[in-house]
Amino acid sequence: MIKYNSKREGTHYLNPYLGGVLMGLLMIVTIFISGRELGISGAVKDTVVETAHAISPAAAKAHPYYGMYIKDGQSPMHSWLVFEVLGVFIGALLSGIIYKRVRKPFVEHGPSISSKRRLVVALIGGILWGFGTRLGRGCTSGAALSGSSTFSFGGVMVMLLIFASAYLFAWLFRKLWT
Amino acid sequence: MKEELFVSGRNIPNIDPYLNIWHWQIPFYLFLGGLAAGIIFFAAYFVVSGKEKEMPATVKWAPIIASIVLVIGLIALFSDLKHKLYFWQLYTIIRPTSPMSWGAWTLMAITPLSIVWVASYMKEMFPKWDWKFGFLNHFEAFVIKYRIPFSWIMMYLAIILGVYTGILLSAFNARPLWNTSILGPLFLVSGFSTGLAATMWISNNEHERKVLSRIDIVFILIELFLIIHLFMGFMAGTAVKTEAFQLFLGGEFTISFWVFVVLLGLVFPATLETLELWGYHVPKWIPPLLILFGGLIFRFVMVEAGQITRFLY
What we know:
The complex is a heterodimer. Chain A is mostly helical. Chain A has one domain (16-176). Chain A contains 7 helices and no strands. The relative contact order of chain A is 0.12. By secondary structure, chain B is mainly α. Chain B has one domain (25-308): Formate dehydrogenase/DMSO reductase domain (Formate dehydrogenase/DMSO reductase fold), CATH 1.20.1630. Helix content of chain B is 69%, strand content 0%. Chain B contains 11 helices and no strands. Chain B has helices at residues 25-48, 56-80, 99-120, 122-125, 134-145, 147-170, 183-202, 206-235, 239-245, 254-277, 286-308. In chain B, helix 2 crosses helix 7. The model of chain B has no long low-confidence stretch (mean pLDDT 90).
């Protein structure tokens, strides 16, 4: 197991401020190419709906939430978000390879906790995040980035609260990383 | 009451206007057949070219996969047969004009021979291996003595097997998408590429993987070239052909073909392999996995799409 290494020798990261500007410009490109804003959590939702539909079509159709996304003759996976996420994987892998960040699978964790604990905490965090994205109708990409770029009040609120609460919870859970 | 009786060749359930007789077994078998052909061809090629020692995974270990997938493929083919107990009748005749006959006989030869191939390397792979019976030891010595001619035979058989997986489809002259002679070389090249991918995946030898990777990039480029030619042929063809091609240009199979076969199954893995040759670290399982996945989807798409293409009337 590779220990957490704060220096990350030999790897290259972009300047975060420049990265932020590029992400903003990405919105322009996305809207130009696809005519709508990007998102990530929607693809996860589509996958979940499709899985439910494949296992039990009748139950998924009758379900008040899943049912909204099931249309006859068209799979929920036939959504551009799913393909966008596929593209994100390709791009991320290429970037990781070119900037030498790709290595064998390992668990990155703080020095004072075990890998197991890190995985449990990550699982809980993931569940909360997934739940939150459905409440907020999007994640940092779909709600915060895309929403605020259209001056949607909900989007701006999501953006501010994600960062405000992260600021607070980072302090509360600092033991996990230091 | 005056009754009229219509006799028409246009309404034969599951045959006309749409073919609906080949399900998952056939594309799955075509994939496994191509995969085995690829593995066997390169195993034999490196023996003939005297590079046996440099390419241990290609020559010794990968053929184990070839034998196993050939047997699984034959089980899939057999399970597709309607009259299973009559399969032996394929072996009562040799008909050079029938791809089915070519395939049946080639499989009859290459499947046991691939097992013999693996058996002849058992002692090298597992030093403590013992055949127990004297006659098996004699047979092994005989195979090892004539390994070069044996490899030549295997190369020929592998090419026939690889081409036959495509010709089997192109011999259907009633299905415009299949009825093109490019399918033979296309399936051959694609099968060889999947065989190389599987071998690369199991190889631990850096040098061996580089050699295979270089060959694989060439094969992927040839495959892309053949795909372009396939479609150029359709575009320049009759209305029937252009109609068939529409399935891949906005039709039902557009995404599965262009995204999963061409982009994720050919272009992207070829890019990763190129980056690897340039010295970047690429997780070794990713390009082979993508190539194998692309090859599998390609056969499913071709078999599914081909069955619904038809001549206009």
